[in-house]
Amino acid sequence: MATGALTPPPASEKITETLIEFPDNRLLIDLCGEYDRNLADIEQKLSVQIVRRGNQLAIHGETGARLEAHEVLQALYERLEAGKDVESADIDREIRMGGSEEGTGARDGDQLEMFKGGTVEIKTRKKLVEPRTEAQKAYVMSLFNNELAFGIGPAGTGKTYLAVAAGVSMFIGGHVDRIILSRPAVEAGEKLGYLPGDMKDKVDPYMQPLYDALNDFLPGKQLAKLIEEKRIEIAPLAFMRGRTLANAFVVLDEAQNATTMQMKMFLTRLGEGSRMVITGDRSQIDLPRGVPSGLKDAERLLDHVDGISFNYFTAKDVVRHPLVAAIIEAYDADAQRALANRADKRARDDG
């Protein structure tokens, strides 16, 4: 374990430096990263300076920033002690999550073994997936604790990625027999006949983000075999009508583009032994003008139903390029100004 207990200085002496000592120099090298790039990343994100002195790291900066950097470095070192790697995404995660994990409470059965010790992580064939914000952490816990879970928020917040990871984890753990992933193909109005090729060729462009997620979690040959055996299905929402989905992990992505009737149809497909996840972004509705979004209706009607969870994300949970969060915030601010202007206009007209 890294040791970083602070000894109070004399009252007349101002603290300008925080020292952390690390007992294993090999792990310290991994912590610093090639050409100290991990330290540079922390310095840039937390506005501190980090200097290596033997098996110690000296942190310089404002008091709050130094303490935050101390927590992040210690958490990353403990990660290395546990045999895990440290990459840029892990640094970002520790900064977002405050540098430490708190207990998540009791879980039932081996299905949630990944929550032992207070950690929240999803094991798949190819990688270990860890939430990088508090909202993502709560969402992952909801995916395993509820038969029906909603993930609602802007693009880039990991809603679909984490849902597919949870589905793969439950599948390889034997908790479900199938994975079924679906999206509305609204851009073509679900009328795909004009596109070239057979039906698979026509719908695959709309399903590509789901294939991309699966490729992150399963080896290519195994994924191809499972798709061929229909143990993993990827299909447009329109193809779900009339089915009962038992013993399956089912994801409806881009649910903001499902109509009210489509959403009702999909939700009532839930069968025995199944889990269902609905993800969507209310700010990107592509339905024709005047057609209500089934996602909004589902929120209104199901918000207080036991066994159904609603998890919400904001621009702060975006885990893509930092500019994506700034873009989302700019569009949200513009939408708020437009609403305020319309409200002012109505008030003037009524006056």
Structural class: alpha/beta
Bin the helical content.
40-55%
Low-confidence stretches: 100-117
Q: Determine Rg (CA atoms, Å).
A: 24 Å
Largest sheet: 6 strands, parallel
Q: What percent of residues are in strands? A: 5-15%
Which secondary structure elements does this structure contain, and how are they paired or packed?
Elements: E1 17-21, H1 25-32, H2 37-46, E2 49-53, E3 56-60, H3 63-81, H4 88-97, E4 122-123, E5 128-129, H5 134-145, E6 148-152, H6 159-172, E7 178-183, H7 199-217, H8 220-228, E8 232-236, E9 248-252, H9 260-267, E10 275-280, H10 294-302, E11 308-312, H11 322-350
Parallel strand pairs: 6-10, 6-11, 7-8, 7-9, 9-10
Antiparallel strand pairs: 1-3, 2-3, 4-5
Helix pairs in contact: 1-3, 3-4, 5-6, 6-7, 9-10
Note the main attributes of this structure.
six-stranded parallel β-sheet, 11 helices, 42% helix, 11 strands, alpha/beta, 351 residues, three-stranded antiparallel β-sheet
Description:
The protein has 351 residues and is α/β, with parallel strands linked by helices. It contains 11 helices and 11 strands. The strands form 3 sheets. Strands 8-7-9-10-6-11 form a 6-stranded parallel beta sheet, sandwiched between helices. Strands 1-3-2 form a 3-stranded antiparallel beta sheet. A two-stranded antiparallel sheet has the order 4-5. Strand 9, helix 9 and strand 10 (275-280) form a beta-alpha-beta unit.
